[in-house]
Amino acid sequence: MDNLKPYVQQHKDRFINELIEILKIPSISADSAFNQDVIDMAEAVKNALEKAGCDSVEICETPGYPIVYGEKIIDKNLPTVLVYGHYDVQPPDPLNLWDSPPFEPVIKKTDIHPEGAIFARGACDDKGQMYMHVKALEYMTSSNNLPCNVKFMIEGEEEVGSESLAWFVKQNQDKLANDVILISDTGMISNQQPSITTGLRGLSYVEVEVTGANRDLHSGLYGGAVANPINVLSKMIASLHDENNHITIPGFYDKVEELSIEERAEMAKAPFSLEQYKKELDIDAVYGEKGYTTNERNSIRPTLDVNGIWGGYTGEGAKTVIASKAFAKISMRLVPHQNWEEITELFKNHFESIAPEGVRVSVKPHHGGQGYVTPIDSIGYKAAAKAYKDSFGTAPIPQRSGGSIPIVALFEQELKSKTILMGFGLDTDAIHSPNEHFGVFNYLKGIETIPLFYKYYVELKS
Amino acid sequence: MDNLKPYVQQHKDRFINELIEILKIPSISADSAFNQDVIDMAEAVKNALEKAGCDSVEICETPGYPIVYGEKIIDKNLPTVLVYGHYDVQPPDPLNLWDSPPFEPVIKKTDIHPEGAIFARGACDDKGQMYMHVKALEYMTSSNNLPCNVKFMIEGEEEVGSESLAWFVKQNQDKLANDVILISDTGMISNQQPSITTGLRGLSYVEVEVTGANRDLHSGLYGGAVANPINVLSKMIASLHDENNHITIPGFYDKVEELSIEERAEMAKAPFSLEQYKKELDIDAVYGEKGYTTNERNSIRPTLDVNGIWGGYTGEGAKTVIASKAFAKISMRLVPHQNWEEITELFKNHFESIAPEGVRVSVKPHHGGQGYVTPIDSIGYKAAAKAYKDSFGTAPIPQRSGGSIPIVALFEQELKSKTILMGFGLDTDAIHSPNEHFGVFNYLKGIETIPLFYKYYVELKS
């Protein structure tokens, strides 16, 4: 593959421009107002896969948004790699915090990205990382360097729980048959120190509703005499953590694996500066579960965070009202062995049980997924490690991520194959936040690294 | 005044239609988008006062919304009544809970209002009750039954703190000189059992902001490792009440007067059905400060309620984000002797002091006002009591209200005169809530009762 780097250099401007075009499509799966844009984005992915050399590409209808499936089968006797990615994006709000419109991509230099970064919603999560695989395929097919079969499965509901994907995978086990699954939807430690994610947290996402009186009330006439749903919700949320920031839901920690001293010591070797971390977030102190380091808190420990809260008067000025209802969206990150459906049930039962007299509480489960850990002695992991070492000149470090890609556990269960998480993003890319971006260096480096994975995977496999 | 009731009967349709016209103007002082409507409403009040017989009416500019001032001076040696009211209204949201548009008044019968009630924002608070005085004046001038001088001062910022009114009153003490102040901006026990409000609670209204990291964060990558402003805000709000629902702010109760057993026994005589109260609000239990009854909790005791809370993702679907900021609007109802500025300071210092590491907290005072108690042995109170007895056939009961009309304390301080709160609304009128309404019976009964107050006041005074 001596012509790999030259090929990427020669075509890099086109690669960047093609990505910019698909970043202009506001494919926000969480908001039905963008329904047509999500559909248009699926179409764009189909065209891209066809151009890149897939033999057949189809837009597969589902109960929700379609799944784009494409494949290039060169020899039934050779291994098959299944590439998964998603073409939907997170909502961009709060819009006022974006320096440039989320769906009008711009390239700007930053301290971490001297070669420039592409700023747009989805630049990193996951359009940019997904498109690296499309361009890597283009290289391999056009230069006759594809050493095995490849299948693409790109979905449009990852940011809202991948329900249709689960349905699709269960329906199409033969079609999706593969030897290893490749996903780029995670990050690495830095551009100087690549890493491969070997663990993901599970997720349980719920919405809660607290109802007091049957209407909004005047806070003067009723204040102090009836339960205020916002005060009550605040009390209930506050009670979910104790003074050590342990989660108080009975049974929540029952299946959490405690890592050994050795494992924790191994983790602690990853380069990390607490000062830099606080400076970059502009906080005076970190905060979390007693007895664990920052890197442990956001990777090997389960968490509970309120992702949104609302109730009463939130407009300009003042309104002296006691709201009839208060709401919150709450998500729990889970570690391997915690079952998300079980945790959701534990949460629901507990939260409803702590409702005081005078209010009614309901918990609506949103979605969730299991955690995942991949062994570092598998052929897939070894091939990925060699690929990173070649392209970065540095061996990657295995790392547990705090994020969740719920369907990874599903893939193992339904397709019986392991997933390799070849991520090229950085924590500073602000995914899910205003000013999300993806380094030009990272994008091109990903396109350079992926073909090497195919090469080494087939070599090690035979 | 034998022709009083016949006059009201004869003109009642016109009285109702005139009120409906001014209810169509969305004079929402809290929202600058309605700026022009508030101005238009001031103009409408000016025209109404002129038609009703005021000699001179002026729209007085202020730093904020104008104050409409009108007067009819018949004899400098006779007493002068100053009528206060407000022409601004509360924001109507949540709009989706209104059965008919808030600014398209409709008359509908209800169990409590067999003669029908006018449904619209401001129907009771305070356009309807303010307009009763305009129509009472019309009767007195047109039938030559005005026994003394009268001045009107109708403001447009009551729902946002009456700042300009305070400024105006201090500037115009001579112009506003009076013997007694009359306000209809409160309620009574029922249409069968009138009552006169003898006490009001003070108010302190603040907005709080909790800031964590400098941007929204991915809850997977940062969850559990940094302070979540929404979780923190919930904890801080929860800590403002102890297990007995006492407010925990140091010094908060220092100046609260404890009523005697006798006074509390007297209060307890007011007809009240807890079952009816719960049924009407559709709640299974009341909630509040330990050791006090429902009627005590919302009248003689100070309270703290969150009036609005917001932060993070509140849209459709799910977003796994840790918000950079969380906000709440919080109001405290105060009892006589509690100084609102002092309480605001106590709140600010306490709330900022309990902020945990990892977040920044700021408290922005909105507005406030002192509580008030009026003696029941004054000429003004006696005249009002006789007027109610005549028109309702039942003597009114003196009652403390949980609501606040901050400027009443200001009037006593600046104008050295007592205020009589002749309210004709009911707790069920849903002021500040969706489907606010005002009974046709109450509206017309008010117009019938007010001229009797003038009559008896002048008689008792001479």
Automatic annotation (TrEMBL), chains A, B:
One of its GO terms (molecular function) is metal ion binding. GO terms for biological process: proteolysis. Signal peptide: none annotated. This is Dipeptidase. SUPFAM superfamilies: Bacterial exopeptidase dimerisation domain, Zn-dependent exopeptidases. PANTHER family: BETA-ALA-HIS DIPEPTIDASE, SUCCINYL-DIAMINOPIMELATE DESUCCINYLASE. It comes from Aureibaculum marinum. It holds the Pfam family Peptidase_M20. InterPro entries: Bact_exopeptidase_dim_dom, Cyt/Met_Dipeptidase, Peptidase_M20, Peptidase_M20_dimer. Keywords: Hydrolase, Metal-binding, Protease. Residues 199-358 form the Peptidase M20 dimerisation domain. It comes from the Bacteria.
